[in-house]
Amino acid sequence: MSSSNADHGELGAFLKARRMELSPAQVGLPDSAGGRRRVKGLRREEVALLASISPDYYTRLEQGRRQASEPVLDTLARVLRLDDGERAYMFELSGRDAARPRRRTTQKVQPELRRLLDDLSTTPAVVLGRRTDILAWNPMAAALFTDFARIPERKRNFVRLVFCEPAIRALYPDWDRVAQISLAQLRMAAARDPKDPRLAELVGELSLQDPDFRRWWGAHRVAVQGRGTKVLNHPIAGQLTLDWSFLTCTADPDQQLITLTAEPGTPSHDRLRTLASADHAGEAGCSTAAGGARW
């Protein structure tokens, strides 16, 4: 396996961030300093001890001067208490995932996803591409969120909108949680293609504009989620509790259809149906056309 795609500097920063979150007590080590440590979290030497590797070996990993083997990565995932998403992220950064060509051509929504969007007349749905770019959406999604036709196509990105669009911020009573989850998912995209110039541009732009983004990005959180629940305070429909899930396109695994639904019989279900029958969905516009996507 070639390590040409590995970003060892990012790997080191990730390992450091994770060990700093663990205390000796959490991993079964005595705290000889009695809780008065100069350094937050575990020391490098302690991680090396738990992983049965030399302190010099681990130090070189954090400094980006050494490539880890798969067994060592597995051991570090256990020692640092990584969840499945964090473990996958670590392997991506190490270049240990299956090599594949990096496609940076402009994505267009797949025809089968386009047809699905058109058929979902009462269900908000969007298609997200690489780096959470918004490729397409249906009228219900536009009615639920906002009309983004005024936004240039290059700026139609979910994470950017979460952090920079006041109308999107106002929808979420738990904006901090939503923003951190979306950023953690962007981290996974960065691991899959660390040399993507548009992703680097996006991260640089948001780091300059938003101190929350800058702080949370530095925490190296990652997430892999296939479903969840969103609570929105919609200016017309009122409070909505919606379950979301995604369908990955087999023709292009970098495209995902995201749907938002409400449990039948709940107030959110009734309010979503009311929104679907109102003129607002029609006013908000349809999805992909020759000029680009709307969401």
TrEMBL record:
Residues 37-87 form the HTH cro/C1-type domain. This is Transcriptional regulator. SUPFAM superfamilies: lambda repressor-like DNA-binding domains (SSF47413). One of its GO terms (molecular function) is DNA binding. Coiled coil: none annotated. It comes from Streptomyces olivochromogenes. It holds the Pfam family HTH_31.
